[in-house]
Amino acid sequence: MSVTPDTGATPVTLNKPELPPQFRVSARRQKRLPNWGLKAVMAITGVIGALFLAMHLFGNLKVYTGAEHFNKYAYWLRHVGEPLLPANAVVWVLRVVLAGCIVLHIVSAAILWVRGRKARGKFSAKRRGGLRSFEATLMPLTGICIALFVVFHIADLTLGVQPLASETFQEPTDTAAFAYQNLIASFSRPWSAAIYIVMMVLLSIHVSHGLYTVVSDLGALGKRLRAVLITIGGATAVFILLGNASIPIAVLIGVLS
Amino acid sequence: MTFTPPLSAAPGVTLGSVLDAKIPTGDPETAWLRRRQEYRVINPANRKKFTVAVVGTGLAGCGAAAALAELGFEVHAFCYQDSPRRAHSIAAQGGINAARARKVDNDSLYRFVVDTVKGGDFRGREAEAYRLGQESLRVIDHLNAVGAPFAREYGGALATRSFGGVQVSRTYYTRGQTGQQLQLSAYQQLMRQVQIGTIKLHPRTEMLDLIMEDGAARGVIVRDLSTGKIHAQPADAVILATGGYGTVYYLSTLAIGCNASAAWRAHRHGAYLGYPSLVQFHPTCLPVMTPWQSKTILMSESLRNDGRMWVPLTAGDERAPGNIPESERDYYLERKYPAYGNLSPRDISSRAGKEQIDSGHGVGPMHNATYLDLTDAIKRLGADVVWERYSNLIEMYRMAVGEDPMRTPIRIAPNTHYTMGGLWVDYNLMSNIPGLFVGGEANFSYHGANRLGANSLLSASVDGWFVLPYAVMDYLAPKLGQARPALDSPAVTQAHSRVLERTERLLSVHGTRTPTEFHKQLGSYLWEGCGLNRSDKSLKKAIAQIRTLRAEFWQDVLVTGKGVGINQTLEKAGRVADFMELAELMCIDALDRSESCGAHFRLEHQEAGEAVRDDDQWMFASAWATDAPLDFASNPELKFTRHAEPLEYSNVHVARRNYQ
Amino acid sequence: MKLTLQIWRQAGDTDSGHYETFEVDQLDAGMSILEMLDRLNEQLLHEGKEAIAYDSECRESICGTCGINVNGRPHGPQPHVTSCMQRLRSFHDGATVRIEPLRAGAFPVKKDLVTDRGGLDRIIAAGGTVSLMAGTAPDSDAISVGHDQVERALDFAACIGCGACVSACPNGAAVLFTGAKITHLTMLPIPAIERNERATYMVAAMEDEFGPCSLYGECVLVCPQNVPLSAIGSLNKERLRSLFHPRI
Predict the structure, then answer these.
(1) What confidence score (pLDDT) does residue B388 get?
(2) What interhelical angle do B261-268 and B568-592 show, nearest 10?
(3) Which of B37, B435, C78, C188 fits as disulfide partner to B217, beta carbons 3.0 to 4.6 Å?
(4) Is the separation of the CB atoms in C63 and B86 below 8 Å?
């Protein structure tokens, strides 16, 4: 007979995890980085990134005001604050902050992604076309593409690393910048323009879902506030897409040269 | 005044003693206050030395466990579900009554007591109805404070609604899910004590026997349903809050797992069972639609406010409802009870519906329902208004049946809902076994022969939060220093081996009929013999059928699998085995009580369809004892003794219920 | 009506498990999925086999006990409906239906379709409670609460704790469940007193066993009680708020 005789009265408490008694007296600490904290880090760094993108877009659009003005703007960026600040100071501060944000954003995302896979369990996930499910699924993918694109973008238009940059790439000098010429040269290559256009699509998807998530991650609740914030997020993404992607297109069809 | 209980009409019943319910003498209105002053208390430092086992985690069980743990007692809480939150208190819809009497509709404690006692057809205790009303205030306040979002008026005060059989508005509610919100609030308070460590929680654990030592309840034997292991839990007192046993009819509004096992095992140890045959049938349940239907879903009675009940005039009419002209419809409630019409009380409506179905006028594919028609209301009020009032019910019906109540009439049928009967307890909620307390629907208190709507959540909450903590502490007070039974004491080992033997027996029959088949058969016997209408003939027939079926069960039950790990067939078989014995006692009680009262309708005792009480002979509570060897692995012959607890009413005038 | 069922069988918590195929005939479109399993189980018993273990209690979509994945979707094909109320009329005759336990890392399978959802109880125990002893509550009418406030609280309190949200989530997160409880209690005056502690402890308990939220939004699509997605924002808000509450 397969019945196990057992008179041992072992009280079964909730089996796992053992929480200390009187938890309200000794505040309970989490041993690892909390998910909500990582999410908040991603939200804040993401917002900084999005703000940067919006500013970057504003600067980019100056390309339509002509070579001289655009180059002047590029030159000003490196010399803003002089003589109080040394040359390139503001640019470097921005670079450090942005690089820090990107690292924090990526590390947090990776940790959360691994934890999510673990928590999913042994059955594979099958999606059912959720509210934002498609965009949410794309986030890691678009994120990786954006990271690679940033490398390309810097090599192409900041550092002028061959063969990514155009053959005519010119370093800025102490008195002038050649951002306009570099940009035209780079976008005149159809493959390069294509990369920029495709990446702007991916970037705007990432930003739109990211900003949508931020609203929830940072706990905005009221219906109107949520609607306003989500609209602003969406609009930002659309502007980034239309504004930035228009430039390579304009170069290709000859509006800018 | 001497009380002589009448002879029993049921064969083989022995007349027992006259019971003392230990109700404080004198004015019932002050009885509870006086009793609480008499109760002994225990020094807070000593309370942790006592262990209390609480079986069941519904409103009564969660409340008692949490309240006792808050006081400092060590509590072991058991539930057969995977989480204590799932107990069937969660399914109550309508609301919870309270005698707060704030409005100027002239409600009062007295009116509450009159309604409760009268609703129970003068078969419940007057003093307990007072306690129910008095403690109802603290129940509302407590549950409100711990998270039940009671509906509010726009001005911010608690909202009330009126409920069947009452002329004032005293029912507090949270939409149509009051039970859920109260149950979850109570569950949360239980979990708070689990977290603190004062309650040891044992989910997926079923009580299968009582540990008795020196004539007192001293713990429980339980089976861990995950592992199949049988454990003993010695305790200083045991509280059963195991709910009702309506599932004995197979189809009921109860949960699939609801069972009588814990209560029945306690009964077999000598705890009396009060009014076992008193079962409330709800008139507006969804009918059985397929032979495989496992339960019936309740549709709120509020539909009867606007719906008209009818059946075709000719029996066996197969036409679609829309094709039956007005002249060929029988609005049977309006015809038979012109004064109350479609709003006749639950028992009247249930019986009238069953009468139509039995006479061949039933509708639907299985001819087992009557129509509840909203079309007149839609014509009169407009579709929007009807939708606004009943949208959740209409949605539920659409989901369950696949028809649209806005176009075709709803099909409804009466079904088993609530058991007024249960383990007999005295005024302190202790059964005749010292140390065995019973709370909630599992006991027979408060409701007499018929429960008033929205009083069930109240009685469970009052028992759990505001009666048992006092009464249990009083019982334990003189027992400081008394040792609990050791694990190797005969009381524990005998109970343990009884449970083991039964499990082995069930697994070794290897018969041909599944537990569910036996359960269905039992249910149909009981429904026919001891259902809405009972008669001498039907009951005697049912008793014979049940005895035969029980003998067959132990010869022919089919349980596959093993005793280790999860084996739901084995669980079911054990529960059905207990139902088999309980069903016989239910029929015996119904046969014994030669009168009609409340939900107990004997065809021999009626006056044009109205129940006729016999207060001269039967104004007492029946408390049954079953004499049979304590052997849970066979089919012993059951012998029954009826004890009687006379009922007295000093403040409420005894009168006949009148529906005209 | 006839269906081919691929059902997850797993003898115990340590067994690796597999799918087993059954043919069930003479089904009625009005039967629920669970009644179909009942019928299959009767068939299995008569063949001398073990019945398929699965959980169910009230069978009227309020207790939250039932929960199986049907064709990869928690509870079944109809949205916002518990397994016990899912009718066979959602399937066409002769269809193949895959039935699995509620799948999530935090819900280990105990047997066949039975899972251990104790993690949800542990979240509630950690702080989904009110530190108030029986009998000590103030008069309910002493603190007025607006009509809309309690109705809104009830939208969140309606959660039945079935775990479908966790199973639907590609990250196995229980944020909708936890957020529903946190929001419900925050919206009521007396429970709101402990909102900071509650958010801290409940979120800690949640993160011990469940995954992070990526706002996929799958949870709200299957939730039988239509708990709004704002429960998630509310949880984040309460957790962040508890960081900043003044410590004197």
Answers:
(1) 77
(2) 60
(3) B435
(4) yes
Chain B contacts of A19, Cβ < 8 Å? 195
For C94-131, write each residue's pLDDT tens digit.
999 999 999 899 999 999 999 999 999 999 999 999 99
* Predicted pLDDT of residue B384: 87
Which residues in chain A are contacts of C149 at CB distance < 8 A?
none
C203 touches chain A (CB under 8 A): yes
- Residue A28: its chain C contacts at CB < 8 A? 126, 200-201, 204
In chain B, the residue whose alpha carbon lies closest to the alpha carbon of C152 is: B149
Residues B530 and B411 in one domain: no
Span B105-134, average pLDDT: 95
Span B510-565, pLDDT tens digits? 999 999 999 999 999 999 999 999 999 999 999 999 999 999 999 999 999 998 89
In the stretch 189-228 of chain B, residues with CB closer than 8 A to chain A read 194-197, 200-202, 205, 224, 227-228
**Model pLDDT, residue A12:** 38
Chain C residue with the nearest C-alpha to that of B150: C150
Q: Is the Cβ pair C103, A136 closer than 8 Å?
A: no
Residue in A closest to B191 by C-alpha: A14
Which chains are adjacent to chain B, needing at least 3 Cβ pairs under 8 Å? A, C
Q: Which stretches in chain C have pLDDT values below 50?
A: none
Beta pairing, strands C96-101 & C3-9:
parallel
ipTM, two decimals, is 0.97
Say yes or no: B486 contacts chain A, CB-CB below 8 A.
no
CA distance to partner chain C, nearest, from residue B492 (Å) = 29
Which residues of B participate in catalysis according to the annotation? 346
B201/chain A closest Cα distance in angstroms = 5
Amino acid in the structure at residue C191: P
Is the N-terminal amide bond of B414 cis, ω within 30° of 0? no
Mean pLDDT value across residues B252-274: 96
Domain topology for A33-120+130-252? 3 helical TM bundles of succinate and fumarate reductases (1.20.1300)
The residue type of C14 is T
Contacts 24+ apart (CB under 8 A), B133-136: B133/B98, B133/B99, B133/B109, B134/B32, B134/B99, B134/B109, B135/B32, B135/B462, B135/B465, B135/B466, B135/B467, B136/B96, B136/B97, B136/B98, B136/B99, B136/B100, B136/B112, B136/B458, B136/B462
Q: Which of B365, B392, B416 is the last residue of a domain?
A: B416
By three-state DSSP, how is residue B122 classified? coil
Nearest CB neighbour to B500, from listed A5, A10, A21:
A5
Read out DSSP for B55-78?
A: E--SHHHHHHHHHHHHHT-EEEEE
DSSP string across B276-290:
TT-EEEEEEEPPP-S
How far, in Å, CA of A36 to CA of A14, rounded?
25
Q: Which chain C residue's Cα is nearest to A112?
A: C212
pLDDT value at residue A131: 55
pLDDT of amino acid A16: 32
Backbone angles phi, psi at B411, to 5 degrees: -100, 130
B377 and B295, same domain (yes or no): yes
C118-244: in CATH 2.70.70.10: no
CB contact (8 A) between residue B564 and residue A9: no
Are residues A226 and C209, on separate chains, in Cβ contact within 8 Å? no
CATH number of C3-38+48-111: 3.10.20.30
Please indicate, yes or no, whether the overall pTM of this predicted structure exceeds 0.90: yes
Mean of all residue pLDDT scores within chain B: 93
- Average pLDDT (B11-22) is 95
Classified as helix, coil or strand, B128 is helix
Residue whose entry in the numeric block shows the structure tokens 């000719």: B314
Which string of DSSP letters, residue by residue, matches A163-200? TTS-TT-----SS---HHHHHHHHHTSHHHHHHHHHHH
Up-side HSE of residue C237: CA atoms within 13 Å toward CB? 17
